[in-house]
Amino acid sequence: MWGSWGGWLSLWFFFFFFDIIMEEKAPILRVPIFKFAHPTTKQISFHTIIRSSDAKSMDDLTKATTARNEMAEQLEKGEPGSSTVVAAIERYIPYMYGLVIGVEGQPHIRLNDPLCFTWTSGIGSSKKSTPEYTYRFEVVMVLISYGFALANRAWALNETTTEANFEENSKQVAHFLRLAAGVFDYVHIAELPRWVNMPAVRPVETFPHITTATSHMCIAAAQDLTVKKAVAKTGTSKAVVVKLAAEVWRRYEAAQDEVKAATGDWKKALSSTFVKFLEASMLLGRANAYRFAGMVQQEAQKLGLAVSYLNVAAKCLQDIPMPTKASSDLAPWKAMLEEQKAEIEHFHRAYTNENDLIVYDRLTDEKLLDVPEPKGLMTPVPYNPPYPAFAEIH
Length: 394
Hints:
Elements: H1 2-24, H2 46-49, H3 55-77, H4 83-102, E1 117-119, E2 130-132, H5 135-159, H6 166-191, H7 208-232, H8 238-261, H9 266-269, H10 272-299, H11 303-318, H12 334-359
Antiparallel strand pairs: 1-2
């Protein structure tokens, strides 16, 4: 008799004390955000390459040279996430568009030397420089670098998030991510179509599918913050959380689909860190969506369905390669991945034990489960380029 009661008592203690441990552990309120390496570029002297016949034109070209070289220095030496990198790019952009209007395609312009723009990739597997003699290459790479820098500002702020500053920090993180997504969308919609005769060899981030993928990644991370907020807020319906989490999954899945759509050598040209982060984030997004869907079913006392959803979540986790070394591609996100994995495994184990030992509810095949429906609250902030610093060069 005591053996039977002892078993039930042990089971009760398991659920009770494990729940206390999970509740007392301070949650990690940071979300996985990719840290982009800066593309780099060689310095250029516009005022010595482009001929000018008046003082104002010489002054404009000299200022353009200074602004660009300051940007180049920040991209090479600046810390990812630094506001000085963002500011340096923003100072150059009006001069860049001035060059496009005042120099590109103007028949009266004469050059003392060929004007070559040289850039490396920020997310490519190779850091080899790519030289190009078109302003479109310059515009695309500068704006993509700007998007990377904005996303890195979000990454840096995200790293400082605590329970005390979460509310304010999360707003800023989401804002920078939405700004970055807007820049990537602008490049994709406005600037890439203007670049005719694209060379076969160019930085991988200039490929249309990749600019779309980076936009999706930024919005997915911003959406992930809404999930964190909803979970932290007392009284939020789990049904709402499911939809918010499903949108994170949908966005990362869309980003991964864009990468897969890039044909030929483009996939090979991406860094393994970028590819693995995207794959892990998609799997984690799906795991969370199915985890919260399972919690909804548990609240409705449908434990068989709850376990079925958590089974899918557990399978997703098994496919994420947990980093074991500091040099691993996913090492920067190890703590966040482990915390998410521990939470999902806790609910999976608790629901499964309760169903196996007490309820005996029938499970549902994964193919018959309703797929969580997404609800997006985050959208890109449309990017509007600044007015050109000048319109003519004489």
